[in-house]
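Hi C.,

You asked whether I'd gotten around to modeling the 189-residue construct. I have! Everything is below, sequence then structure, no commentary in between.
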Amino acid sequence: MDEVIFEFLSKYIELTEEEKKILSELKFIKSFKKGSLLLREGEMSKECFFILEGCAYSYYLVDGEVKVTEFFTEKQPITPVSYTTKKPSEYYLECLEDCIVSIGSQERTAELMTKMPRLAELGPAFLEDELASQRMKYDTFIKLSPEQRYQNLQKQSPELLDRIPQYLIASYLGIKPESLSRIRKRILK
């Protein structure tokens, strides 16, 4: 599991063997069963997450209906808004599959920065990448029709279509499951 984190960080800085050893000693890896909630609406998030294995998703409950906002799979970080703002979460984070997750906290980050001050270099580059990625996703989502959103998902993340129930994909696309079925039939023709 360490290799997944090392590979992710190597996009930003080259890690020494000593730094890899420090990371291995400090990180906290935990397993979660499918259906486990990493965060509930109304809770304060004291942790951020890095998916090592499995799939999780974020969603709102609006009048009892699930509104999916994002899916997270291997090598993806999850920094809940609540973790940053120190306000109660407005959404849920749930494991869609059995997951193995590296869990971070402000205390662990402070300890890591003390032992590896070079990691501070990673912060701005990582934030820029995450912000740019989220902005591009948002812009693409807003300007595309539901059918184009589905085709974009097929192109960008085809593995998700096999891992995620269709009703959750429909929710993510902002449509009803019946509409997704019609879109899929049209595309197959």
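If it helps when you're writing up: The CA atoms of residues 65 and 171 lie 9 Å apart.

Thanks,
B.
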